[in-house]
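Team,

Forwarding the record for the chain on the shared tracking sheet. I've put the sequence and predicted structure together so nobody has to dig through attachments.
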Amino acid sequence: MTHPTCPISPSMLTTVQLPTTLALDLSDRSAEYHVVRGDGVRLAAGNLPLERERLTELFSVWRGARLVIEVGAHSPWVYRLGAECGLQVVVANPRKVDQISKSNFKTDKNDAKALACLGKSDVTLLSPIEPRSKQAQLDLSIQRARKMLVDSRTALINHVRGVFKSHGHRSAPCSADCFGARTTKELPAELEPALGGLLRQLVLLTKEIKAYDRQLATVAEERYPMTKLFAPIAGVGVITALTFATTIDRPERFKSARRAGPYLGLVQRKHGSGGPGPQLRITKAGDHEMRRLLVMCANYILSRHGPDCDLKRFGKRIEKKGGDKLAKKKARVAVARKLAVLLLHLWQTGSVYDPFHLAKKRGEPVPV
């Protein structure tokens, strides 16, 4: 049995214009590029210095193309430069692109070619991410600089305490802010040559850290008014609030506040087929420092110093359910995840924080 054929006129045909894709594999001082047409034909390839002027020349030649790069130290400014030059920029997440990260023949040329092929076919295969704005990056850099000073001060304090013990002395039990000045007054004469210079540096570090604290408080007040919504939450100070604001940058990127947990790597990995699968650790995706600050806030909330609230009750239920050290760790992570969701919800809706919002809905007793 034959079927009649339907004639196709030229007017019924449409040509799909696939975009030209320019892929860059960014090294520290150079960039390997690979350009393919929409149908897969290679148009250009080569290597050039990783300099703003040279990249601008390359981008001007391929204006209107799709630019594909990987997340890295240079990706933020290259992303902004590409957008300014009229390119559609896609930033690939290397953790999700096994074809590149687990390749048996990994070179800059092969990486650029693989990025071009994936970017040409389907950008969702690259698990694209959106870099934060330049202002947010600058403000976040202030917090990062403060953390470097705090870490340096902690290392110096630990060294001084260790030297004291090894010579039969005890350093003063005090906070990090006053450790340098107080220990200088109590420094034994025999340890002056070894520790005098370190203690003077500790005093200077403390002054610089306090200067950064004042600077961050000013930045939060002037440029990030949403941090005032976070202030009433127990354990959330200026550092955590400002870091969250600069890390998220644009809350409208998230369809739901619940996406904050996966975005910051505070959800459990999954590896199962046909069943629930084993209990795995959290993904630890996203910003490590933001995740650390959230866990620190969770530690305070669950401690005896933390005031009663929905978050504390939620964590304590998880602790009681397990009853061991592992349950306490799970509770901290769970409270940190719930805190991230709460912060994003307050930001998106502009709501005022109510520490017993869920308790009231459930009819649980709340403090008067």
